[in-house]
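Example record used in the benchmark description.
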Amino acid sequence: MSRERIEVFLIRIFKVIGIAFFAFISIFPFYWMLVLSIRPLQNLLTDPARLVPTVEEIGSLEPYRGVWLEQDFGQFIANSTVVSFATVTLTLMFAILGAYAVARLNFRGRNLMSSGVLLIYMFPAIVLAIPLYVVFSRLGLRNSLPGLILVYLAQTLPVALYMLRSYFLTIPRELEEAGLIDGCSRLEVIRRITLPLAVPALASVGLYTFMIAWNEILFALLFLLEARDLWTLSLGVRQLDTFEVPKTWLMAGSVIITVPIIVIFFFFERFLTGGLTAGAVKG
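Model output (structure tokens):
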């Protein structure tokens, strides 16, 4: 065997070993969390090192029944679903119109708006928390899901505007001008031409917004702490991290909040990749 073939063979071996190693350290923590969420606490205490749950443990799902029946996780899931999908809908609606205006229309302050759309991220969320708490308390929006949705909308809209603007700039103007010549209004051009071409970017923005609204805890804790019936899933998982609640229940809650994000991510992965890279280079 020649030296070149030996080098290629060794490179392939190290490549496989490296991929297997990083896959293991990435997947094993989630697998261990899943195992702990299935096993009852008494079984875990008697045999903590067992990596594979038994059929009886899988069939009982005791920790999941505990968090669902005794910790009101059904209500928390419903609240998080409402908040997340409302945030995604509103963010996309405003971001599409705003990003299209910045990318295609000429108006005073366009360049300033285009360059300053991300300035809000210069300020950490903790800096804005107290002023928002005071303002929302005076407006009567504290302890309400619409108030939390409004906060998430302000938090996700700048990045959504930036991402969609970058993507809209890659769409040829000639396509939209042809639609205008054929008698379409500006809104019809957006609906019939621009949006179908921007599906990857829309999927990316929707996934990003959903992840923020589904997992966020700071503003949820600040605005919903006193209204337990309005808690989101992140607050529900937080209440499990106490000495009174079995750690298997905490693992079950962690699995519940993690699995939807994983499923949605893998479903939209191809759109996510295309949406994040399409506006990076304009040619």
